[in-house]
Amino acid sequence: MTARILDGKAIAAGLRARLAERVATLPFSPGLRVVRVGEDPASGVYVRNKDKAATAAGFDSATIHLPADTSEAQLLATIAQLNADPAVDGILVQLPLPPQIRTEAAIAAVDPAKDVDGFHPLNAGLLAAGQPRLVPCTPRGVMHILAEAGVPLRGARAVVLGRSQIVGRPMAQLLLGADCTVTIAHSRTRDLPAECRRADILVAAVGRPEMVRRDWIAPGATVIDVGINRRPDGKLVGDVAYAEAAEVAGAITPVPGGVGPMTIACLLENTLDAAIARRGAA
Ligand SMILES: NC(=O)C1=CN([C@@H]2O[C@H](COP(=O)(O)OP(=O)(O)OC[C@H]3O[C@@H](n4cnc5c(N)ncnc54)[C@H](OP(=O)(O)O)[C@@H]3O)[C@@H](O)[C@H]2O)C=CC1
Ligand SMILES: Nc1nc(=O)c2c([nH]1)NC[C@@H]1CN(c3ccc(C(=O)N[C@@H](CCC(=O)O)C(=O)O)cc3)C=[N+]21
Q1: Whole-complex ipTM
Q2: CATH for 136-260, among 3.40.50.720, 3.40.190.10, 1.10.10.60, 1.10.8.80?
């Protein structure tokens, strides 16, 4: 079998176009502010892509770039200003942060109504309680891909590889909310390949280049590769060994061009949602 390729880049372009149409009907431009601290090289690319996509879709987008030696208090003061600014609907604090700043403190400082990353404990808790409000962008993007691909979710066995706050956990919650039977696997899981082989839907979010091999995948399964890893030769690869996985899977997302572009499109979707919820416009 050769897997169907789930083209996240195309799905993201469609979503961005629909969002742009909605934004064009609003009497205001939804405001997005990305806060970047220091010079993490990977963040530079992501932040530029976010800014470009947001502006193209009619959002009022800007990046606030603080120096690498910014103190936690200084970052919290910047976040407080954005919380208080009525023109700002969405705030994203780019991760990772430099070591002198506690990530949890930065996340908790963002007004939950403007938390377009969905990382604030209130939003994470609401999702876990089955009352999702602002949902993390990457898992939201994965749900869009599954919907567009027509993958049946009710009663399906889903295995999520990874349990991070930003991908694995919220991913598992969304799949559970869609009536999947969900297993969360991680670095202490016994016999990872056997767990993965049970999956109708396998979501890999571990950050280990090409860890998921052909024999981890049930024939016909849907494989979603969240991983973005730069190999020593400079090539970008996922957490799944793509070529061999595509020989057994029913459908698979590529890297690049799979989940990554969806993350950015969903950031805009969350910003529009937050703007409408805050401002009461339709
Ligand atoms: N496409 C996109 O838009 C995005 C992509 N990413 C990518 O997704 C990947 C995961 O990111 P993130 O969730 O932030 O990563 P984290 O490092 O925060 O979490 C990784 C998770 O994978 C688990 N894990 C690590 N190694 C193994 C292993 N050998 N066997 C089993 N489980 C393992 C860890 O387990 P434990 O908890 O036990 O330590 C942890 O739960 C990365 O490649 C990242 O670049 C991230 C965000 C957005
Ligand atoms: N507060 C916060 N929120 C995030 O959502 C967040 C973050 N911090 N820190 C870093 C990770 C990673 N991330 C990606 C976004 C877009 C692509 C993306 O567009 N990828 C393209 C291109 C990749 C490339 O060419 O480099 C693709 O996969 O096709 C990837 C990864 C968001 N993250």
Answers
A1: 0.98
A2: 3.40.50.720
